[in-house]
Amino acid sequence: MTTSIVKPRVRHPGLPVNAIGLTRRDYEGSMSTLCAGCGHDSITGAIIRAFFELDIPPHKVAKLSGIGCSSKTPTYFLREAHGFNAVHGRMPSIGTGASAARRDLVYIGVSGDGDSLSIGLGQFCHVIRRNVQMLYILENNGVYGLTKGQFSASADIGSKPKRGAPNRQAPIDPVLLALTLGATFIARSFSGDKEQLVPIIKAGLRHRGFAFIDVISPCVTFNDHEGSTKSYSFTRNHMREVVHADFVQPQTEISVSYAPGDSTAVTMHDGSTVTLHKIDNDYDPTDRDAAYAYIRARQNADEVTTGLLYLGKGAPEMHDTENTVDTPLAELPFDQLCPGSIALGQLMDRYR
Amino acid sequence: MTTSIVKPRVRHPGLPVNAIGLTRRDYEGSMSTLCAGCGHDSITGAIIRAFFELDIPPHKVAKLSGIGCSSKTPTYFLREAHGFNAVHGRMPSIGTGASAARRDLVYIGVSGDGDSLSIGLGQFCHVIRRNVQMLYILENNGVYGLTKGQFSASADIGSKPKRGAPNRQAPIDPVLLALTLGATFIARSFSGDKEQLVPIIKAGLRHRGFAFIDVISPCVTFNDHEGSTKSYSFTRNHMREVVHADFVQPQTEISVSYAPGDSTAVTMHDGSTVTLHKIDNDYDPTDRDAAYAYIRARQNADEVTTGLLYLGKGAPEMHDTENTVDTPLAELPFDQLCPGSIALGQLMDRYR
Amino acid sequence: MKVNDFAFRIATVNGTGSASANGLLMQAIFRMGIPVSGKNVFPSNIQGLPTWYEIRVNHHGYTARTPEFDLVVAMNSSTYDRDVADLEPGGWLIYDSTWPMPKALDRPDITTLGIPLAGMCNEAFEGSRERILMKNIAYVGALAALINIDLGIIEQLLEEQFGSKKRALLDSNYRALRIGYDYARSSFDCPLPIRLEKMAPPDDWILIDGNTAAALGCVYAGATVGAWYPITPSTSLMDAFRGFCERFRKDPDTGKNRFIVVQAEDELSAAGIVIGASWAGARSFTPTSGPGISLMSEFIGLAYYAEVPAVFFNVQRTGPSTGMPTRTQQGDLLLCAFASHGDTKHPLLFPADPHEAFHFAVDAFDIAERFQTPVFVLSDLDIGMNDWMVRRFQWDDARQPDRGKVLTGEQLDEIAVFHRYLDVDGDHIAARTLPGVHPKGAYFNRGSGHNKWGAYTEDSDEYIEVVDRLKRKIQSVADAVPAPVVRTNDGATIGIISIGGCDGAVIEAIDWLANRGIPTDYMRVRGFPFPDSVRDFIAAHAIVYVVEQNRDAQLRTLLALETGVAVNSLRSVCRYGGLPMSRKAVVDGILEQLEHPAAGALLADNHGARMEVPV
Amino acid sequence: MKVNDFAFRIATVNGTGSASANGLLMQAIFRMGIPVSGKNVFPSNIQGLPTWYEIRVNHHGYTARTPEFDLVVAMNSSTYDRDVADLEPGGWLIYDSTWPMPKALDRPDITTLGIPLAGMCNEAFEGSRERILMKNIAYVGALAALINIDLGIIEQLLEEQFGSKKRALLDSNYRALRIGYDYARSSFDCPLPIRLEKMAPPDDWILIDGNTAAALGCVYAGATVGAWYPITPSTSLMDAFRGFCERFRKDPDTGKNRFIVVQAEDELSAAGIVIGASWAGARSFTPTSGPGISLMSEFIGLAYYAEVPAVFFNVQRTGPSTGMPTRTQQGDLLLCAFASHGDTKHPLLFPADPHEAFHFAVDAFDIAERFQTPVFVLSDLDIGMNDWMVRRFQWDDARQPDRGKVLTGEQLDEIAVFHRYLDVDGDHIAARTLPGVHPKGAYFNRGSGHNKWGAYTEDSDEYIEVVDRLKRKIQSVADAVPAPVVRTNDGATIGIISIGGCDGAVIEAIDWLANRGIPTDYMRVRGFPFPDSVRDFIAAHAIVYVVEQNRDAQLRTLLALETGVAVNSLRSVCRYGGLPMSRKAVVDGILEQLEHPAAGALLADNHGARMEVPV
Ligand SMILES: Cc1ncc(C[n+]2csc(CCOP(=O)(O)OP(=O)(O)O)c2C)c(N)n1
Ligand SMILES: Cc1ncc(C[n+]2csc(CCOP(=O)(O)OP(=O)(O)O)c2C)c(N)n1
Ligand code: SF4
Ligand code: SF4
Ligand SMILES: [Mg+2]
Ligand SMILES: [Mg+2]
C-alpha cells in the first residue's frame, strides 16, 4: 500500500490567499503518518504558515531531510516543492551539493537529534562551518523515535527513559555547538509554542547564510513521560524565552514598537526586518559570547533558554567564499562551460 | 623495503634509570620518518619523557592513532607497547572498544587536525561525551600534512597557504569544542615548548576520564611560512600561557610552592598532584564557562591561550556509567561468562 | 474440513496493541501442541498504518508462509480490498459489524461473519485506550470459539503475563476474551470447519525469535563487549543481549556488570569499537542491517588485512539504500562476502531459524578468533523478528571457546622474538598477542602495508607474501563453517540448493513435488566459503535450482565463483518482494523452468495454504 | 649497442627535489622524439625515504614498465643493495664518488662509474638546500653526456621553466648541468653503448598524466561542481580541475567562478555533495581511491535506487584497508561493480592511459545522466600520477552533453501529471525533473521503498516493479560504454583479455610471443556491463587468459558472471605487488600455464628491458 495519503486539492473560495494568490492549503503536503500528538506535526504546521505568510512560491523551495520520524515531515508540507530524503545523518551534504548547483532556491532542512547529533554530527558541524545558505530545523525529542525510543545524544543527564536507568552522559547542546562553530543565526524554540516559532522560521528563511533552529519537539510515544526532560510538561515549565522575534516583510510598515532599549530591529538581506524584543534585558542576542554564557548559566539553573538567541553579522556564505557566479551553476549554458577545440589545441601545446 | 628503521637497543650504563629501572631509551620507538623539524617529533619527545618520568611500564600502555603524519608518531615511542594505527579519523572508536575490553591499560591516542576535526569530528565529539579513559593528543598544524598541505578545519580565517587564497572559513577550535561537550581535562600547548607540554602530558595520563591536549605542532613543509597562523614564529609570538601546570608524583613531597592565590593544587585519582600556577590571575582553570569566555576573548585579540586550561571534577568515565566490573572484561574466565547448560534449560522453559 | 492445517491473517492498524493479542493467539496454539508459525508484516512507522499478522498451522510441521488464507480478521478498513482479495474461495471473513458492512467486503464465494467488537467493547470498558486494547483481546476470544482454541490455555497465558500484580488489567482481558468468545458461540455454529485440535504436547519445542536466540548465543560464547547503532530489524538483538546479561552477567558480590553495551554514535563507530575490543582480547560483536554494513565497509577491510577477529550480525532487510526496513530479504550476500575495497573475502554463516541463530552465533566467535578475521552471521527480518517454533537449544558444558592462537605471557617469555604475521605452523594462521601481557608481545597493528615480521613495508614481495597467506587462510575456513544439510529423494536427478530462511518453504516444496512424482534432492548451504561437498552436489545433478530471496541471484553467483561451474548452468528461483518465501513461490519457480510433461498441470494445481501428505 | 631501446632507474631520497630533475630527463627525451615512459615509485611519506624513478625508451613505442635496468643512478645509500641487484648483466651503475665506493656496489658483471656529485656541488654552490637540489641537476647533466641526451633541449626546458623571472635559479641549473656533463665527458668515453638518438619530432604526441587528463575531461564535459576529500593517488585530479577552471571558467566580466570545488570533511560528505548537486541539475563528480569508495558505499546505493546521476573517479591504489597508498593496483573492480548493500550494479569505465582518461571522463557524465545512475571511472595510480606519452586529445565542437531525460518547464506545462519512476518510453528510463523549474515537477526523492508513481510504498509488487526496471536499465548500459578494443593475430587460438593500464605490457607480450611463433588475439574491455562482443571473443578462443592487477582475479570474476562461462575456464594472470604491469610478467604468466613445446625455453629467454622486433 502507498502510505503517503494524497490529500484532495480543493480550492476553498473562502480561504485567504497570500500575495502570490495561494492559500495555506497550497503549502501543505500529504497527510502525516506520525503518532497523534507528535511535536513534529506542530512544527510542520509552523513551517506551512511561515512559507504561506512569506509568499514563497513552493516550487522555488527544496526540502531536505535525513532519516527518522522528524525526517519524514518534509512530505507533509509544500507538496509542490522538490524533496530529498537523504540517508541517515547525511542531509547536510545533500544540501551543500544542491545549494552549490542552484543557489537561487530556498533551502529548508529538517532533521532529528539522532540524525544530526549522533550519526550526522560531523556533517552538521561542517555545514555550519561552510555556512551553506539554508534553514536547518532540528526537531529535538531526546530519543530515536523511529527506532522506538533509545536515548539520543541530546538526552539530558538524569532524564528517565520509559524503562531502564536514567541517562548519565552529558548532552550535546546543538545551540552551544552552533555558537562555538560560528553560526550567525541560532534559535531555540518549542513545538508547542507556534507564536514564538513561526516568526523565527520566517526570519531564518530570510537570513543570509546558515540559519539554525533547535526545536524541542516531544515524542509522545517514547519520551513524554514523567521524568523525561524533553516532555511537554517539562519543557513548558522550564523554558524561558529571552528574546521574542517579530518578523516584518520588506513592504510593510514596522507596526510593532517597544520601549527603546528593550528591542532592536535587524534588517535582513532582502530588506525585511526582524525585531528582537528582549524579555530579559540582560540578554544581548547580537553578542555571541554573552549569549553562550547566558545560556550556560540558565542551563545550570535547569532552564531551557528559547528565542532567537543569536543573530550575527552575515559571514560569507559558501558561494561568497568560493566567489561563484550569480547564475545558478546548473543553469549555465554549455558554451560557457566547455572551452572548445581551439582552446584544447592551445592547451595541448603546453604538454609537449 | 621496511621503512620503520629499528634502532639498536643498547643499554648505556651511564643513562639514568627511573623507578622501574628503565632508561629514557626504553621509552623510545623506531626512528622517525617525518620531515626534519616537524613539530610532531618534538611532541613524541615530550611523550617519551612523560612516560619515563611517570615510571609507567611500556607494555601496560596501548598507543592508538588514526591516519596522517601525526598518526604515524606512535611508532616512534614506547617500542614495547601495543599500537593500533586505525583508519582515518576512527581512532576514538578503537580506543573506546579497547578500553571497554581492558580498562587496566594506559591509553594514549595521537591524532591530527584532519584526522580529528574533519573526517573524525563525529567520533572525536562522541568519545568526549562518553568520557572514555584515555589521553588524547591532537597534533594541530592547520593542514593535512600527509596529503601535501590542504587546509584543515583548524585553519584560521586569513591564514595564508603556500600558494592560493587565504582561508575564509571559521576554524573549529577543539578546545572550545571540548569545553562545550563537557570534557574534564582540557589543555592547549605548543610543540616548541616542552617545559609546558611535559607536565601537562603527565597530568593528562593521570586524569580520571578523557583528557584532551591540543598541541600546536607546525608543519615545516607545508604550513610554516610567513602568513600562516600555525607557524613556529606566529605561535611563539601569539601564544599566551595562562596557567602553568606542575606535576608531582604521589610519593614525592610537593616541593614547588607559590604565593597563595596564584596557585591551586589538584590531587589526581592516583594520589599524584597537579599544581596549577596562574600566570594570569583572572584565569580560573576550574570554571568551565569562565575558561570558555576567557579563551574566546583572547582569540578576538589574536592570542592563542595555552596551558592546562580546564581541570574539572571527574565526571563518571565510561565504565562508571556502565557499572562494569573492575577486572578487565577481556580477563574474565569463561565460567563467569557462560551460564551453562542448567541455566539454559531453565531459560528454555520460559519460551514454552 | 481442515483440522490443524490452514492459515489465517489478522489485519489491524499499528500502534493499537494488536501485536500482543496476536502473540497471544500464536502462543496458545503452540501450547496446544500444534505446529504453528506467525509472520508479522508491519510498517516502517510507529502508529496509524496498516499492519498484518499471519498465522499458519500445520500438523505435519509445514509452517512456511503461505500467500493465501482460509480466514481473515479485517480490523482495518483502509485495507479491506486486499484483505478480502487474499482470501481463499470458501474462506471466512471476520469484520467489525459495529458499523454496517461496507461494499468492499462482500464477495460471493466467502462467508462473512460480523462481530460488533467496537460496540461491545465500548459498552464494556471505560476510556478510549482500554477500549482499543480490549477490542484486540475480543477478536482473540472470537477466534477461540471459531477455530477452537483452548480458552483455558489463553486464560493461563494472560495469567502468566499479568499475574497478580496487574489484577485489574487481567480481569479486563478475561472479560474482553469472553465477550468475543460468547458472541461467536451464540451467533455462529462454532467451531468452523477449519479448526484446531490439541496434539501431543511438544516438550522439546520452544517458541522464540532469531534475534533473541542470537543474543543468547553471544552470551554463551562469552562475548563481553557489544557495540551497536539502532537499526531495524536488528535492534531487538542488542536489547535481548542486555536483558540476558542483566540476568546472567552480574557479579554476585558487587552487582557490577560482566559485560558492556556501548550505543555508538553510528555504525562506523560500532565497527571500530568491536575491532578495538577484539584486538584487546574481548569477544565482541555488533548487530546491524544492510546500511550498517555499507558504512562499516572501510573498517571491515582493516580487520581483514590486520587480522583482527570481529563478529557482525547482519539482520537483512529489503532493498538497496533505505529500502523497505520492515520487510525481509537475503540481499547482502555479495556485500558481506567481499566487503571493502581491494582483494578481500569474508566467512559467512547462514542460520535458517532461531535454533541455528543461537548455535551459529556461538560458532561465529570461534571462527572469528581462530582465523583472526571478521565473520558475518547473515540472518534476516523473518528469522530475527518473527517467533519460530524450534527445538530447545542445547549446551555442552564441556565446550570451551576456541580463542585461536593467542600467546600467553609464559609463551612469550620462552620465545626469542615475536613476529605478528609469521606463519610458524604452516596453517596460514600467525599467532597474535594481546596488549598489556608482555613487553615481547608488542607489535603495531596497522591497515597499511606490512610484512610477515609485522613491520611497515612498501616492498612488493613482502606485501604479496602476506596477502597470499591471507587468501589461503580464508579458503581454509571452508572446513570450519557449519557443513551443508542434505536431504535426498530416491531417483532424484534434480538438485535444489538454498539458504537460510528459505528452508521451510523449500522442504515443503520438495515434499509437494515428491508427492506428485517429481523427486528432488536438496542441499542447504550454511557457511561460506563453501566446502567441496557443494561442488560435488552440483556435479551430481543434471539440473540444479538455486532458491533465494534477492533479485540478482547472489547465492548462485557465490556458488558459481566458488565451485567453478558456469553461472548459467544453475537455474535461479528468486523472490524479493520482502515477504518470507512460500512453498508456492518455490514450486512455481521450479515448475516454470522444468521440462516435464506434468509441469503445466501441476502449476495450475499449486495454490492454497493446505499441505496434505498422503499417508 | 642499444640505441633508443633500454631502461634506467634513478634511486634517490624523497623530498630532495629529485622529482623535478627526473621529470626534466623524461621531457628532454620526449622532445627528442623518442618513445619514453617514466614510472615514479615513491613512498607514502613526505621527506627522507627511498624513492625511485624509472625511465624506459623504446623506438618501437613499447614503453610498459620493465623490472630490469641497463643503467642505474644510485644516489641513495640505503637502497644500494637492491639497486645493484636489479641491474642487467653488463649494465652501468652510476654512484656519487664523493665518498669511497661501498662494498655493496661492487658487482663483477657491471661497469661502475663514480661521479663526485656532492663534492662538485658543494664547491660550486652555497647553502645546503641549493647544494642538494643542484646535485640532482648534476646527474641529469652526467646522464646527458652518458646516454646522449640533447643538452640544448634540456637547457631549453630549464629556460621555459624558470624563464627570465628566476634568472639566478636558471643560472645555477645551467651550471649544475654543465658540472655533471663535463665531468662525465672528461672521465668516461661518452656516450655509452646504450644511447639515445633523435627521432622524428612527434607533433601529435603529448606528455601528460591521467589525473590531469581526467580533470580536463570534467571541464570539457561541463562539470561545475567538484567535491572531494584528499586521498593519494587521486588528489592531483582535483588540483588540476581547479587549475583548468581558473583558466577557462572565469566570468570575463565579473571574474567570478563558473565552477565550485568543495573540500568536504570526508568521503561520505563528498558523495552527498555530488549526489545533491546532480539531483539539482549540475554535472558533479568526486575523485577518490579505494578507502573513499568504501566510505561512500551507503550513498552509492541511494543514488542507484533513487536514480540520481553521479560520477566517481576511483584512482586505485594497492591493497585492502590503507594498504600501500603510493603503489598501483586494479583491486576495486568488484567493489565498484556492486557497491552498497542489497541488489545493486553500477557501470564502470576502464581507461588505459591519460588519453582515454580524458575521453572516458567526458563519457562518464553522459552515461550517468542518460541512465540516471552512479558511474565509476576506474583509473589507478600508474595512469593517474605518471606521465604518459599519448596522442593529443581531440574535441568536436559539435558535441553536446547528453543530459538524459530532464523535463523542461514547457514539457511539464503540457503533461497532466508527472510521475518520477514511470517508464513511459519503454527504454527502462523514466524522465526526471529538476527543483525550481515547475510546480508540476515536484517529487520526493528517497532511498526508501517507492513505486513507479514516485510515492512511498511497502507493497511487494510495487517494489518489485521498480527494481526489475532498474535491473534492465543497468543491463542496457552495456551498449553505451566504450566498446572493447580488439587486436588479432593470424592463426591465433589463444585469446587474452585485459583491462586499463595493463594494455602496454599486454601488447608488448603479444608481439613478443608472436615473434616467437605463438600468435594470440587480444581484447581490452573498456566498460562494464560488458557488451555481447566479450562473450563472443571468449567463445571464439580455445584458451583465454585474463590479465589484471589484483590478487583475486576480479576481472575474470566479472567476465564469468556476465558472459556465463565457467570462471575456471578462463586462465588468470594476476600481478598485484603494486608496480605497473610488465611484458615479462604477462609473458611469464601465460607461458607458465601454456601447453606448448617451446614454453619452457621461451620462459628462460624472457627477461631484459629490450624488445627487438625483427624487421
Ligand atoms: C545507516 C542507518 N543506521 C540506522 C538507521 C535506523 N534509524 C532510522 S531513524 C533513526 C534515528 C532517528 O532519530 P532522530 O533523528 O532523533 O529522529 P526521530 O525519529 O526521533 O524524529 C535510526 C537510528 C538508518 N535508517 N540508517
Ligand atoms: C578514508 C581516507 N581518506 C583520505 C585519506 C588520505 N589522508 C591520509 S592522512 C590525511 C590527512 C592528515 O591530516 P592530519 O590528520 O592533520 O595529519 P597531519 O598529516 O597533518 O599530521 C588524509 C586526508 C585516508 N588515508 N583515508
Ligand atoms: S515515535 Fe515519537 S517521534 Fe516518532 S512519530 Fe511517534 S511521537 Fe513522533
Ligand atoms: S609534511 Fe608536515 S606534518 Fe608531515 S612530517 Fe612533514 S612537516 Fe610533519
Ligand atoms: Mg529524535
Ligand atoms: Mg594536520
Cα-atom Rg of chain C, whole angstroms? 27 Å
Structural class of chain A: alpha/beta
N-to-C CA distance of chain C: 17 Å
How far is the N terminus from the C terminus of chain A? 63 Å
Number of strands of chain C: 23
In helices, the fraction of residues of chain C equals 25-40%
Bound molecules: thiamine diphosphate, iron/sulfur cluster, magnesium ion
What are the SSEs and their pairings?
The complex is a heterotetramer, with two copies of chain A (352 residues) and two copies of chain C (615 residues).
Chain A: H1 39-53, E1 61-65, H2 69-72, E2 82-85, H3 91-101, E3 106-112, H4 113-117, H5 121-130, E4 134-140, E5 143-144, E6 150-151, H6 174-181, E7 185-190, H7 194-206, E8 210-216, H8 232-238, E9 239-248, E10 263-267, E11 273-278, H9 288-300, E12 304-311, H10 318-322, H11 340-349
Parallel strand pairs in A: 1-2, 1-3, 3-4, 4-8, 7-8, 9-12
Antiparallel strand pairs in A: 5-6, 7-12, 9-11, 10-11
Helix pairs in contact in A: 1-7, 3-5
Chain C: E1 2-3, E2 5-13, H1 18-31, E3 36-41, E4 50-58, E5 69-74, H2 80-85, E6 87-96, E7 111-115, H3 117-124, H4 128-147, H5 151-162, H6 167-187, E8 194-195, E9 205-209, H7 210-221, E10 225-228, H8 235-248, E11 260-263, H9 267-279, E12 284-288, H10 290-306, E13 310-316, H11 333-337, E14 348-349, H12 354-371, E15 374-380, H13 381-385, E16 387-391, H14 409-414, E17 444-446, H15 460-475, E18 485-487, E19 494-499, H16 503-515, E20 520-525, E21 527-528, H17 532-539, E22 543-548, H18 554-563, E23 570-574, H19 583-592, H20 599-605
Parallel strand pairs in C: 1-8, 2-5, 5-6, 6-7, 10-11, 10-12, 12-13, 13-15, 14-15, 19-20, 19-22, 22-23
Antiparallel strand pairs in C: 2-4, 3-4, 9-16, 14-21, 18-20
Bound molecules: thiamine diphosphate (TPP) (2 copies), iron/sulfur cluster (2 copies) and magnesium ion (2 copies).
